[in-house]
Amino acid sequence: MSFPYKSVLIVGATSGIGAGMADKLVGVGAKVIAVGRRQDRLDSFVEKHGDPSKAAAIRFDVTDTEGMDAFVQRVLTEHPDLDCVFLNSGVQSMTRLSRPAEFDLAAFHNEINVNFSSLVNLMIKFLPHLQAKTTPTGLIVTGTHLGVVPAVTLAAYSASKAALTSFVDCLREQNLHKPTKIVEIYPPVVQSELHDYAGPRGRTYGMPLDEFTERAYAELLTGDELIVIDSIAIEPRETYMKLVEERRRIFTKLSGVMLKHFEL
């Protein structure tokens, strides 16, 4: 089975999972529009693949709310064939809640904004375009296992990803009658710059990026709307998946009750 989308916008494509998936999707024949803050890495991505029909790039900071409409309009003007948006940008830092007098509220709210609010903005802005197309379209979001079970020292990251997962669940359920497939990926810890706060060893934590990329791509081909790769390291996958599946079951049941009294 081939990848169902031909023109993919990847937000957060200059490092980690986003960069790995950008290279992979170009390799399987999709056109990728890479988005990130670092112009040098965007230039390297375009030069690496060498064909503007396969690789393009736009510099944008997802927290730039004032510039978001112009960014979305530019993407759709330059790439009207866009049929998939892959939202992957994110930051992670440790939060010491035991010392509230030292707590950096601005940094906390910035992490929530990058990981959650800015991605909500992008989903809402791009969905009308995707849903108006007559060919298959997709919205793919990178979540995390920590959106299900929080990590005690990663409060902002865990909270932002829990909010993201809840939003994606609601977005998908309210749009089941529309053609755009809404997919969330739960990665394990993956070796990337996301963990640079941990010092020199940070990029050695977790699954090698190439391995994750291949597994995530294979799962995307199945058509599943929730892709769960491995589990939280301290628990067997079977135990964790029971929690994930029970959560989905209860959410679906509750949604059925509530949507009987809600006009979509």
TrEMBL record:
Gene3D superfamilies: NAD(P)-binding Rossmann-like Domain (3.40.50.720). SUPFAM superfamilies: NAD(P)-binding Rossmann-fold domains. It comes from the Eukaryota. It comes from Colletotrichum higginsianum (strain IMI 349063) (Crucifer anthracnose fungus). GO terms for molecular function: oxidoreductase activity. This is Short-chain dehydrogenase reductase family. Coiled coil: none annotated. Belongs to the short-chain dehydrogenases/reductases (SDR) family. InterPro entries: NAD(P)-bd_dom_sf, SDR_fam. Keywords: Oxidoreductase.
